[in-house]
Amino acid sequence: DADVTQTPRNRITKTGKRIMLECSQTKGHDRMYWYRQDPGLGLRLIYYSFDVKDINKGEISDGYSVSRQAQAKFSLSLESAIPNQTALYFCATSGGFPTYEQYFGPGTRLTVT
Amino acid sequence: AQTVTQSQPEMSVQEAETVTLSCTYDTSENNYYLFWYKQPPSRQMILVIRQEAYKQQNATENRFSVNFQKAAKSFSLKISDSQLGDTAMYFCAFLRAGGTSYGKLTFGQGTILTVHP
User: Fold this and answer.
1) Are B45 and A41 inside 8 Å of each other by CB?
2) How far apart are CA A52 and CA A29, in angstroms?
3) Å from B16 to nearest chain A CA?
4) 3-state secondary structure chain A
5) Quick check: B110 and A45 CB within 8 A?
6) Does B112 reach chain A within 8 Å, measured CB to CB?
7) Which of A2, A63, A110, B108 could form a disulfide with B4 if both were Cys (CB 3.0 to 4.6 A apart)?
């Protein structure tokens, strides 16, 4: 089984709709992240959580919210989707010293029409 | 805040040849890690190589090696004996290590590498 799973893998939605992207991990790490990938911009951090009670805004949090339901689950919501939120979204979890390795989910391709 | 810059949007190389992807970064941190990630058409993010800033020796993983120039804040990736399966987008990434806020990655814009037969 994959270390980090994301659902859905692909989603098309209309402007103004609410949508939730879900993420689960089996690595047992406390730290989880949501990134957004756009062509020419790389991946940018939307929100991150260092434990269940700790939620932090990243570089581009406007228009997004998150929920950390458990150590293993971290969901990203678009309250009212707009076309410029069309992107590839990645969830990730990371360990600490010595590798600081980040484990990524397979990504969710979201299209807002 | 950290910034990571990849100035080569696209690169191409012939199979079996060597190619170098460039990355520069800007930070005031002393304790950090640098990474190269590969993203093939499957879009999965795959760790290629990791470099600890406190290590002077350049990291190597099979055909992949880095040239880490700490003073110049440069971190290039060399791929030797290029293979068709190396065709992918490559991202350079910075991670602040230590303390309590470790783990967040700052990515460059990415370089699309195409390996031609």
Assistant:
1) no
2) 11
3) 28
4) CCCEEEECCEEEECCCCCEEEEEEECCCCCEEEEEEEECCCEEEEEEEEEECCEEEECCCCCCEEEEEEECCEEEEEECCCCHHHCEEEEEEEECCCCCCCEEECCCEEEEEC
5) no
6) no
7) B108
Q: Measured between CB atoms, does A102 come within 8 Å of chain B?
A: yes
B23-50: average pLDDT: 95
Per-residue tokens: B101? 């806020």
pLDDT, tens digit (0-9, with 9 covering 90-100), for A20-35? 999 999 999 999 999 9
Q: Do the Cβ atoms of B109 and A40 come within 8 Å? A: yes
* Pairwise CA distance, residues B97 & B21, whole Å: 24
CA distance A84 to chain B (A): 18
Tell which wins on pLDDT, B30 or A108: A108
What is the rounded CA–CA span in Å between residue A5 and residue B23? Answer: 30
Model pLDDT, residue A85: 98
Torsions phi, psi of B90, nearest 5?
A: -120, 130
pLDDT tens digits for range B68-83:
999 999 999 999 999 9
